[in-house]
């Protein structure tokens, strides 16, 4: 079955542009023009990914994302106005997997869609041994097979993106990773643009680590460069 993408936007020009390019890339497409219709269709068709505009009627995109995350882990890419940084940050905090700003490059959006879908799909079965559990201070443990994390014996409720960021940092313990490198490794694409999503994701991640076990917050900010996990 082709990958099914739900577009949620009340601007026909944007919807038509996205639908045309997605169908051209062999995706199956459904559309919704308001938040209530988006939730209904998400329940009815079970899409593989949702492109969700923030400024839509009935329920806005942030409310839709909040409702979706109560029952679903469907990947969500938020579409926001370029100046609305708060919407982007709140969207990621609510569990969105990524965001793109209007006006956007269709090529960039397609790259983000592929990256988010790749992150959300389970690894294929292979003959290779399972990846080892990564451990850090404060009883921090990340299991790539079950996609579960814990610290100090307490489970960590991490989004896919937060798990990927922590996994990449732990794998590269002792090395400073720039924001651009984190985008490439954790987000799944090379995007030389707005890297504030990295900062907001790391901020949320560190807060969750401190709540679970104060010693588990092993992430250090390197001013003007990026982040690292100390050996």
Gist of the model:
By secondary structure, this protein is α/β, with parallel strands linked by helices.
Q: Could you describe the 3D structure shown?
A:
- Helix content is 42%, strand content 22%.
- It contains eight helices and twelve strands.
- Helix 6 crosses helix 7 (179-187).
End-to-end gap: 45 Å
- The helix tally amounts to 8
Strand order of the largest sheet: 2-1-3-4-5
Order of helices and strands: EHEHEHEHEHEEEEHEHHEE
Q: So, CATH architecture of the largest domain?
A: 3-Layer(aba) Sandwich
Features:
alpha/beta; 22% strand; five-stranded parallel β-sheet; elongated; 2 domains; four-stranded antiparallel β-sheet; single chain; Rossmann fold; Arc Repressor Mutant, subunit A; 42% helix; 231 residues; 8 helices
Write the layout of secondary structure elements.
Layout (H helix, E strand, L loop, with lengths): L3 E5 L3 H13 L3 E5 L2 H11 L3 E5 L7 H11 L4 E6 L3 H9 L4 E5 L3 H15 L13 E3 L3 E4 L4 E4 L2 E3 L3 H12 L5 E2 H9 L8 H17 L6 E4 L3 E4 L2
Parallel strand pairs: 1-2, 1-3, 3-4, 4-5
Antiparallel strand pairs: 6-7, 7-8, 8-9, 10-12, 11-12
